[in-house]
Design a protein that fits this description.
Blueprint (H helix, E strand, L loop, with lengths): L15 H16 L4 H11 L4 H12 L7 H12 L5 H14 L3 H14 L4 H14 L2 H11 L10 H14 L3 H14 L4 H13 L3 H9 L2 H5 L5 H14 L3 H9 L12 H16 L8 H8 L9 H13 L3 H15 L4 H21 L3 H8 L13 H17 L3 H14 L4 H10 L7
Helix pairs in contact: 1-2, 1-3, 2-3, 3-4, 3-5, 4-5, 5-6, 6-7, 7-8, 8-9, 9-10, 9-11, 10-11, 11-12, 11-14, 12-14, 14-15, 14-16, 16-17, 16-18, 16-22, 17-18, 18-19, 18-20, 19-20, 20-21, 21-22, 22-23, 23-24
C-alpha cells in the first residue's frame, strides 16, 4: 500500500508508522513548534529509503541559513538520491541540490514548478516561501501561494499554513488589509501558527500601530511564545512596538530575558539576527547598551568567516563593530571577498548589496558617518536582494538617517525623515527624529 501525506501526495519508501511521523513533523514545521528534526529522524530511522523524510530534514537544515546545516543536508540528499522516487519527489531533490550548490533562485524556481503541478504539496509551498524570503522576493512570497490557494479548502489539513504564508506575502507587497485578515483567519484555525502570528505582526509594524501591536502580541501569548522556534523573532516584533513608543526599558528587558530575545545566549542564526538588529536600533537612538555587544559578538564569532549569506554577514558586522572587534569585522570582509570570487547567488548578492552594507555598518561604528551614508545610498533601493523583510531592512533607512544627522548633513537627514513621515505620519519615532533635526544648523 502506498502511503500518502495529509494532502494526498504519495510518500515513496514510507510505511504507516513512518508516514505518521512525517505528518507530525510537517505539522510542527508549518506551525514552527516542537522539534521537527527529531520527529523526522524517527521516520528516517524506521524507513531509510523514505525519500520525503530525507527531503523534509534537508529543508529544515538549509532554510534556517545555518552554515552547520549544509553537511547533514548533503547526507539527506545523498541518501534520498539512492532511493526510488516519483517525479514530484525527484523535483524536491533537485531543489535541494540547487540550494546546496548555492543557487537559491534556481531552488525557488524548481519548487515553483512542483507547486504548479502539485498545488497541494504543502512542503513545496513552505520551502519555496522560505526560499523567497531568503531571496527577498516579495512578489513570489505572495504569488507562489496565491497560485495554489484555489486548490485548497478550509477543511484541509495545513490550510492555516497556506493562509499564513499568503498573509506574509500580501504584507510584503503592501496589501495590508488583506494580509491582516488572512493572518487572523489562519490563527482562528490554528492558534499555534507562529508564521501567521508573525505575518500580522509585520502588518502592524508597517502600518505603525504600536499600541495595537502590543495588544495583539499579548493575546494568547503562550500560543506563540512557548515551544516555538519562531518565538525570538515574535518577541523582537513586540520589542519593536515598545521601541517605537520610546519604551526603552521594556525593549532592553526583552533583549536580556533568557526566554525572549535571548541576547547573546542563543547560537541560532535567526535569533542572533534579531539580537543584532535590536542592539543596533537602540544604538542608533543613542541608548547606551553597556556590555551587551560582547557576548553577542562571541556568539557570532564562529560564523565570521562563513561568507554564505550576505544578510547574515551584515548582522554579524553589527555585533563585531558594536563590540569593538575590528579583527572579526575584517574576517567578515575577507570572507565576503572570497564569496564574491565564488559561484552561486551569494557571490552576486554580496557584491551588489552585502559588501556595501557591511562596509557602511563598520564605517558608522568607527564614526565615519559620511562614508556610511555614501555607501548605503546606492544600495537602499535594491537591499531586498539580500533577503529579509521590509521591517528588517528598515535598519538601513534608520542608519542612513542617523548617519546624515551625525555627519551634520541636515538637508539629507531632513529629506530622509520627510519620506519616513510620509509613510508613518503618526510615528513617535519619526517625530523624535524630526525634533532632533531642529538642533542642527540649517546651513550644514
Amino acid at each position: 500500500m502506498i502511503q500518502k501525506d495529509e494532502q494526498g501526495n504519495p510518500l515513496s519508501g514510507a510505511d504507516g508508522e513512518a508516514a505518521a511521523a512525517y505528518t507530525t513533523a510537517q505539522r510542527q514545521f508549518s506551525c514552527y513548534v516542537g522539534d521537527p528534526v527529531a520527529t523526522i529522524d524517527a521516520a528516517i530511522a524506521r524507513r531509510p529509503d523514505f525519500v520525503m523524510a530525507h527531503a523534509l530534514k534537508a529543508y529544515l537544515m538549509l532554510l534556517g541559513a545555518e552554515p552547520a546545516g549544509f553537511a547533514p543536508a548533503r547526507e539527506c540528499y545523498a541518501a534520498a538520491r539512492r532511493a526510488a522516487a516519483d517525479d514530484r519527489e525527484r523535483g524536491h531533490l533537485d531543489a535541494i541540490g540547487h540550494f546546496l550548490d548555492g543557487n537559491l533562485a534556481q531552488a525557488g524556481r524548481t519548487l515553483e514548478d512542483i507547486a504548479i503541478q502539485h498545488p497541494n504539496d504543502l512542503l513545496a509551498l513552505q520551502a519555496g516561501h522560505l526560499t523567497d524570503f531568503l531571496n527577498g522576493d516579495s512578489r513570489m512570497l505572495r504569488d507562489r501561494i496565491a497560485r495554489a490557494l484555489p486548490s485548497w479548502r478550509p477543511d484541509m489539513p495545513g490550510y492555516h499554513a497556506v493562509l499564513g504564508m499568503h498573509a506574509f506575502g500580501l504584507e510584503e507587497t503592501a496589501l495590508y488589509a488583506r494580509a491582516e485578515a488572512a493572518g487572523r483567519r489562519a490563527l482562528e484555525i490554528e492558534p499555534r501558527d507562529g508564521w501567521a502570528k508573525h505575518a500580522v505582526a509585520h502588518v502592524i509594524e508597517m502600518q505603525c500601530r504600536p499600541a495595537d501591536g502590543i495588544r495583539f502580541m499579548n493575546e494568547n501569548l503562550a500560543d506563540w511564545a512557548e515551544d516555538s522556534f519562531l518565538s525570538v523573532h515574535n518577541w523582537w516584533h513586540l520589542a519593536l512596538y515598545h521601541l517605537e513608543i520610546g519604551d526603552i526599558d521594556t525593549a532592553l528587558a526583552f533583549y536580556d530575558h533568557p526566554d525572549r530575545i535571548k541576547g547573546g545566549r542563543s547560537p541560532v542564526i535567526f535569533d542572533m539576527l534579531d539580537a543584532s538588529a535590536m542592539l543596533w536600533r537602540l544604538t542608533l537612538r543613542g541608548v547606551d547598551v553597556g556590555d551587551r555587544w560582547q557576548p553577542l559578538a562571541e556568539a557570532w564569532a564562529p560564523y565570521a568567516r562563513s561568507g554564505l549569506f550576505a544578510f547574515n554577514d551584515a548582522h554579524a558586522v553589527m555585533a563585531f563593530a558594536g563590540a569593538g572587534r575590528a579583527d572579526l569585522v575584517e574576517a567578515v570582509l575577507a570572507a565576503q571577498e572570497d564569496a564574491m570570487r565564488g559561484a552561486g547567488d551569494n557571490a552576486r548578492i554580496t557584491a551588489d548589496v552585502g559588501r556595501p552594507v557591511a562596509l557602511a555598518l563598520a564605517a558608522f561604528a568607527d564614526g565615519d558617518h559620511r562614508a556610511a551614508l555614501d555607501l548605503l545610498r546606492p544600495v537602499r533601493h535594491i537591499a531586498n536582494r539580500f533577503g529579509g523583510s521590509h521591517a528588517q531592512r528598515d535598519l538601513i533607512d534608520l542608519t542612513m538617517i542617523e548617519a546624515a544627522t551625525r555627519a551634520g548633513d541636515r538637508a539629507t537627514a531632513a529629506a530622509l525623515v520627510a519620506e519616513r513621515a510620509d509613510l508613518r505620519p503618526a510615528s513617535p519615532l519619526t517625530r523624535m527624529l524630526r525634533d532632533r533635526l531642529e538642533a542642527l544648523p540649517a546651513a550644514a
